Amino acid sequence: MIMKKKYFTAYLFFLFSFAIHSQVVNSVLSEGIWFKFSVDTTGVFKIDKSLLQEIGIATNNLNPKKIHIYGNGGDLLPESNGVFRYDDLQENAIFVEGEEDNSFDTNDYILFYAKGPHSWSVNTTSQEVTHKQNIYSDKAYYFITVNNEDGKRIQNTVSISGNPVTEITTFNDYTFYENETSNLFATGRRWLGEEFSLENQQNIQIPFPNVVQNEPLKITVRAVGVSGLTSTMKVNVNSQELFSLNFSAISSGSDNLASDRIGSENFSNTSSTVSVLLDYDNGGNPSARAYLDFIEISGKKQLISDGFQFSFRNFSAANTSGIVEYQIQNSQNIYQIWEVSDHINVTSIANESSSGNFSFKAMGGDLKEYVVVSENDYYTPESVANASIENQNLHALKDINYLLITTSEFLEQAQRIANFHIENSELSAKVVLLDEIYNEFSSGSKDITGIRDFIRHIYSTNSSESTKLKFVCFFGDASYDYKDRIAENNNIVPVYLADESFNLAYSYVTDDFFAMLEENEGSMSPSHSLDVATGRIPVSSQKQASEVVDKILRDYNLDSYGDWRNTITLVADDIDEDSDREIQSGVEIIADDIKDNKPVFNVNKIYADSYVQQNSSGGEQYPRVKAAITSAIESGTLVFDYFGHGGENGFAQERFLDVPQIKGFQNENTLPLFISVTCSFSRFDNPSRISAGEFTLWNTTGGAASMITTTREVFISVGQAFNKRLIASLLQFDNEELSISESLVKTKNNYSNFQKFFIYHFGDPVKKLAIPKPNVKIIKMNGIDISQSLDTLKALSRVRFEGVVTDNSNNTLSDFNGNLSTTVFDKPIDKVTLDNDGFGIVNTFDSQESKLFRGLASVENGNFNFEFIVPRDVKVAYGNGKLSFYASNNVQDKAGFNNEVIVGGINENAPEDTLGPEIQLFMNDESFLDGANTNASPNLIAKLSDLSGINTSLTAVDHDIVGILDGDESNPIIMNDFYQTELDDFTKGKVIYRLRDLSVGPHTLKLKAWDTYNNSSETLLNFVVVSDSSITLDNVLNYPNPFVNYTEFWFNHNKPNEPLEVQVQIFTVSGKLIKTINQQVQTTGNLVRNIVWNGSDDYGNKLGKGVYIYKLKVTSTISNISTEKYEKLVIL
Length: 1132
Prior knowledge:
Number of strands: 76
Shape: elongated
Largest sheet: 9 strands, mixed
Strand order of the largest sheet: 47-59-58-52-55-56-51-48-49
């Protein structure tokens, strides 16, 4: 659209290079009564009595001298930190008609000069002008208040004496035409207007009156073409073909998605309107299309007042030394002329001529801006919703370690995180609302640079190093649409978008802009550094916000402790094209780095090309990789790190991680740091398409609460180098303990490729990786101190270890009482990739994955011991195994390892054992009965016992803990990694394994297990899956029944691990309701038995003896489905 009324006539954009004002201590909004209103263009605005009332000002007994208007204009704030901008709102000089009588009467009004949202960049030397479209808002905002002080008023300009060196009778003017209706690829800042496809010609009329005859005008046109063939747009002005925009062909598979062209040419024009005809030639491609970006027109106009207000300036005067004299024709049409070069301090110019012209003198040498004020042509401001502004004072904030920036909708949830860290992390934390930031730091406009300026203000006002700002959380989703043009937009806490909009390898979305706070920064140079650590929680509803905060805080709970924190999972894509050749070898380098620098961690390697690839109607697939990923997530891993191809729907061309799989993750208490160095996995800024990364964060039953993830296409070389450095920082190779987001900051600050902007942290930026502290170590093996020559872990030998939990200096912690989890690994083995896609690349990598023993032991006063029998299946060859330790006392957790114990050989004198293990099978909990009902994704519970212990080694074939579902021997379920012994008893243990998405109806599961002597047993469990689309209630009863003053309500259901609302209503036999019990329950299994009743009615009165009816109603809090059953009870 053409701006200014319907047409936008230029306002110049001044570039200041002054130092930023000294910082304001208190905002003007901190006291008084304030109201906000908006303007949509630049010029002189009028506020009369009725509009004052509409805005919110009470006009009864209003003294107009006490009216103040504040605002800094609507120009885009300078992104460079070192460029001048106003700190806090500035009072504007205004004109008030009729204020002399101290009463705001019906005919009184206010005139003031406002700067609208769009502006111009002007070079007076080259006489080049470029419009600056405000990408954030089509409105500018001002603030009005009334207090006891006289307001700032427009003063008269000091007249200049002397003779002018030149007379000015013309001025330079410019206008632009731009519509913003389409963002072609949902990325970047560039929005385009008219589409040329079916309609290949469009004519646009642009008013440009009072042109100087025989002076050329200049037109600039910018447009974008999208076609697989070359195409052309001809630009015709006033029926004359001036130039063409030639669009390049877009190659299939190219990162470039569109051809962007701009052209300019001079032309002559004698009419008051410029007619621009754009003619698109698709080059023979019917699917080709082009889009107009903008049209700019600039040139000279005569200084003639025609009864309308207009702004003017003159480049010649700006380049002239000495006095110049302006002559404006038709002074009878001029009410006033204001100089508005400093729009805060507008001055009024007196007419120095008694003839028909308005004449005044000014000093040349600078570009000055003026506006002709007409009594019959004013713009009208608009009142806004929620115009009343509560007092606020962000400028007074200081000594904040942690800022959380959000909207009022999410204030409560953001405050929960802030409160947690105030109470537990010794941080000063503050939740700040976006609208308040905008009011004080961007004059009410949604300019994201105001957010950065606020953060910079807090960063620079600390009183000591310990109170310095360290963390910023952006609590809310963001969108590529700043102006809410798309349906269901969710631009809640906006994000920085690159100007590049047609190449996904160069167009980025980042919060790094807000964290570059030094004086010379703000230009998004890859060489600039981050000064604070940021994280984003991309949520769009209160429910979603509550669920994600629950999840983030749950990650700090004691329930999250476990030996899974000793595991790092590395996942590598296979080779699908030549550029992928280094993917797996790069991941293996990281694995070696971990082994060399932090051997306390156990590395789980899932390299896709080491698995058999299967072909199906849906394409190539890796079902075992898919299962391995789910197993790794659900069994627990401190870090899950994927490197390879991917996108918004998941990992890899073979989709071995997809959205349904992510949504099904069940790892509530084992939430990893999820790293996805892959293209666009978490492209969160497109509200029309939810990414796999967002689903990972939003999953209420699992997924991840902290993510380092990518939002655009990342080059393989960039991802590989960045990932290597990131892991080194995260796992503390240099023993520097940083939060996850601080590790990301450190990595980015030591990496200069611009694609680092693509890499994001989702989650709480204060969160640290839950690395257990050192140390846990063994001191004796079979009663012999480990400083002496140790025995070997031989097959079938019974081994006893003793050890201690220590502090960082290896002093025994005598007050440490808790549990120890031990995993004993066999020797590493070499594995090879399979070259599934025929590129001739076979990689060898080592893997230490066979577990000889995994058990629990008590730690008392810092001491522990445990024993087990080494499985017969241990490889006879000698080599170094590994003992991995994890200890917890519900206050802290510790970890340690030993990789000096030798494994190999066989105990020739082992006692005989010919009996297989005892096996008991259940679904969801141990009250399950054979043949009973269960849900579609139940937890299988297998209780195993054997005097020699259970074999979990992977060394031998067919000696696994294996499940066979419905007799399908071709798809065995290997459960070795899910077995753990009972506390202090290696002869007994349990497998908990989740089955998934079973069909409704009867099923069987056969489980076979082996003891360490390779004796086997098996057993069969029958069960019936009922539909998850409804709630099934079985075995509804109350116990005891009959009862006197205590009974429990029991029932079985098919919704384990799901919060349920339970209502029990008791009725007399005649149907009168006398008691209602409401309670929320959540069970890991199918049985509920914790709803109790004492036999009293709703008023606390004891019920009489007799028979009563009760109704049990159960409602799912997730799906809102419900069911109910009636039963009888008897009170004695």
